[in-house]
Design a protein that fits this description.
The chain is mainly alpha-helical. The chain has one domain. Helix content is 68%, strand content 1%. The chain has a two-stranded antiparallel sheet with strand order 1-2. It is globular.
Length: 438
């Protein structure tokens, strides 16, 4: 097996342990587990930096440094200043590993992009699926036996770390061996989201299903597309994942009850009548409307520019620091310039992956572009900046556009550039013959 593939696999597993330990540390309030999460995070970042140094000739540093400065360095500098003002162990671990670990994933994303740039990203996810799916099922099973709040947390953890990464396999129908794993993960996302009363993950599952069905028709697999549509309809009306009928584990209501579509329809009608956009925001199903007003109502000019920092708080029924809307959370922490520049980076990377040369040489280009699009939409509903494999793969997609599309052998002495084979020639579980060597 090629060394870069093994490094990428090690990165994913280390990140998986770190993210899971961080969640367990929060749930159990165990300092020991939080320390374990921190150690795994340090190992992951250290391994990522070593990979980046080793393969630095493959990186377009002007683009990479722009991404790093905006999405990683600026938040980490602000976090460091916060920790220096109150240098306690709890502040340090919470700032850098529990809440700030997300921003370090930009470095991990660059390392994953470097290690998989020869087209081995799909084989990596394909083999990762054989670990992720059983572990994800165990998390869900454990969550069912736990209390209501913990059950929801384990459901979200399983979706973010196990099933969203594997669902990417459904976005390339020509890879038949991985297709079933991808669609199984999409089904699990829809079922679990309905049972934990999550509008956000319900929409994520719908996004994946829609994009995967579109991929069937785009690649000429129309029969498969129609078959999947029929199967999804049958499963929906039989109540397998019907968010109109399924009651959640934490509330005696369905996801549709939480959406309150009737009130949205009334608000839409009032908007069409008087043109008042505010009516579309303050509809009863938008449970975040009051929170948004409470969080940003007292912002002054400096806070709009720089935010309130990683531990910024506001009063809404009680003193709190989370808004539970990803992009609003980022705006609250870091201000308007950060959020605007981050969105520009994501939109630019998505366009480059879809329209640039990457789709011709990397099987993962279109799936990564699709995941960035899902993240952009997800952040408008929930999509919190969590330290998860879901987030790391989003940054993998962004940083892929900071790499050269030609292969350069990086072991000294440097050899001449060689043409990269077509991504379509790869099959899941197979490592391309043409690869970078150390």
């Amino acid at each position: 097996m090629n060394r870069r593939y093994l490094l990428a696999k090690r990165l994913l597993m280390s990140l998986f342990i770190s993210s899971t330990a961080a969640f367990l540390g929060i749930v159990s309030e165990s300092t020991a587990i939080k320390v374990l999460a921190g150690v795994c995070q340090v190992v992951t970042i250290g391994l990522s930096i070593d990979v980046i140094k080793r393969y630095q000739r493959l990186i377009k540093w002007r683009i990479a440094l722009t991404y790093l400065a905006i999405m990683c360095v600026y938040p980490l500098v602000r976090i460091t200043i916060t920790v220096l003002h109150e240098p306690t162990f709890k502040i340090f671990t919470d700032a850098f590993f529990i809440h700030g670990g997300y921003y370090q994933l930009v470095i991990v994303g660059l390392a994953l992009a470097v290690l998989t740039r020869d087209g081995s990203g799909y084989p990596l996810l394909y083999r990762f699926a054989f670990y992720a799916i059983p572990v994800g099922i165990l998390m869900i099973a454990f969550g069912i036996k736990a209390d209501e709040e913990t059950s929801v947390g384990f459901g979200q953890l399983a979706i973010n770390n196990c099933f969203i990464p594997v669902a990417l396999l459904a976005l390339y129908p020509s890879q038949k061996k991985s297709l079933a794993l991808g669609w199984f993960s999409i089904a699990v996302i829809l079922i679990v989201a309905a049972h934990i009363d999550s509008r956000s993950y319900t929409l994520v599952g719908v996004y994946f299903a829609a994009l995967s069905i579109f991929a069937f028709f785009r690649t000429g697999h129309r029969k498969w597309g129609y078959t999947v549509i029929i199967l999804l309809a049958v499963a929906y009306f039989s109540g397998a994942y019907s968010f109109f009928n399924t009651k959640s584990v934490d509330q005696n209501e369905s996801v549709a009850d939480k959406y309150q579509f009737a009130t949205l329809q009334r608000s839409l009608g009032q908007f069409l009548h008087d043109g008042n956009l505010v009516r579309l925001f303050f509809w009863e199903g938008n449970s975040r409307a009051g929170i948004i007003v409470d969080a940003f109502g007292g912002f002054d000019r400096d806070q709009w520019l720089w935010g309130k920092g990683i531990f910024g708080r506001y009063s809404s029924f009680t003193e709190r620091s989370t808004i539970e809307i990803g992009w609003a959370q980022e705006l609250f922490r870091w201000g308007i310039p950060y959020i605007v520049l981050t969105l520009i980076c994501l939109l630019y990377a998505r366009r480059r992956l879809k329209k640039g040369p990457y789709r011709k040489v990397d099987l993962m280009a279109i799936p990564l572009a699709s995941l960035i699009g899902i993240k952009l939409l997800d952040g408008m509903v929930f999509g919190m900046p969590y330290n998860t494999i879901y987030s790391a793969i989003v940054f993998w997609g962004v940083m892929r556009t900071a790499l050269s599309t030609k292969i350069i052998v990086c072991s000294p002495p440097l050899s001449k550039e060689i043409k990269e084979p077509s991504a379509r020639s790869y099959t899941p579980g197979a490592i391309p013959e043409t690869s970078l060597t150390v």
